[in-house]
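Why do we bother with holo predictions? Because pocket geometry can differ from the apo form. Keep that in mind while you read this record for glycinamide ribonucleotide.
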Amino acid sequence: MKKTSIAVLISGSGTNLQSIIDKMESGHLPVVVRCVISDRESALGLERARKHGISAYFVDPKPCGSRDAHEVAILEILDKHDVELVVLAGYMRLLTGRMIGRYRNRIINIHPALLPSFPGTDGYGDAWRYGVKVSGCTVHFVDEGCDTGPIILQRVNPIEPDDTFESFRERGLKIEHGVLPEAIRLYCEGRLRIEGRKVQILPKE
Ligand code: GAR
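The structure, written out:
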């Protein structure tokens, strides 16, 4: 199968990025990670990328002056690497219409809660403080809203009586590391069909 060129956008530790790289290198994911882009210079994920010989960029939002200008700079990098699919893996910025328009239905995001519950930047914290008994994570296509795009996959993470916030989050991250590559694989296999809000998963040929 032809490999899909992807870019991974991050803001932090990059454990989801690592799971993609590991599955790519072991031949379990038909992708080539062409570049990793971060809006934070200190993001550990940049180091992870470089260790694996992947082009890693810090695109500083400050000198850009606006979200739009920041995205122009990111789009230049995506163009340079001929990227087909953009994966947001812990990227903590809302995208504007510019980027979404250019990559319509070709940007996916992992969110650490069962959307539409607890959107935003602290899915684990918000779910934990609310006291839900079941949480989870969601992989979805990105649209103009905040975590509102059509849902590809969701996995549950039940909260046990003896959980601490750390044990809840740690288990959740492990689940994320499985479900994000799974969604990417479905995309690569051409098995995702968007019909309005719904994403149909087509059977394997
Ligand atoms: C993950 O839990 C991801 O779901 C979350 O950030 C974390 C990044 O971890 N994303 C969001 O909250 C997006 N709104 P990582 O850098 O170790 O992959």
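The chain has one domain: 4-201.
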